[in-house]
Amino acid sequence: MLATETNTQNTMHKAEFWKLHENMLINERQRLMLNKLLDGFDGKLQTSIWAKNAKTSTDSALRDIKDMVEKGILKKTDDGGRNSNYELADFKLK
After folding, report:
1. CA–CA separation, 74 vs 45, rounded Å?
2. CA separation (Å) from 66 to 3, 11, 34, 46, 73?
3. Residues 73-91: b if buried by 16+ CB within 10 A, e if exposed
4. How many domains does the structure of the chain reveal?
5. Rounded CA gap, 73 and 42, in Å?
6. Residue 25 falls within a domain, yes or no?
């Protein structure tokens, strides 16, 4: 019962996210990675992980991430350290 409720909440959250961003230009790599994040990506999102999962170069991954940060979809975490980590920014339907 709890698993069903959790799945329903996750599905609703994902649907709300895509409804909010339906008119935003998002490329296929970004869409793939955003869906992974919305589905509960485990671990820290870094440029190298984006590149590996999206099967692209680290340069393209960094451009994708920077674009998502500028659009307010991703934000840099406060982890510090040598590598930058990113996560979904909070969003609310208007």
Report:
1. 10
2. 34, 26, 13, 12, 10
3. bbeeeeeeeeebbbebeee
4. 1
5. 18
6. yes
Q: Among 28, 54, 41, which Cα is nearest to 85's?
A: 41
In a domain? residue 71: yes
Token digits for 28? Answer: 């296929």
Let me know if residue 93 belongs to a domain: no
Instruction: Give just the sign of the alpha carbon dihedral 39, 43, 46, 48.
Output: negative
pLDDT tens-place string over residues 8-50? 888 888 999 999 999 999 999 999 999 999 998 888 899 999 9
Angle at 42 between CA 17 and CA 58, to 5 degrees: 85
- What pTM, to 2 d.p., does this model score? 0.84
Q: Which of 23, 21, 29, 14 is nearest to 72 (CA)?
A: 21
The Cα–Cα gap between 76 and 90 comes to 12
Please indicate, yes or no, if residue 8 is contained in any of the structural domains: yes
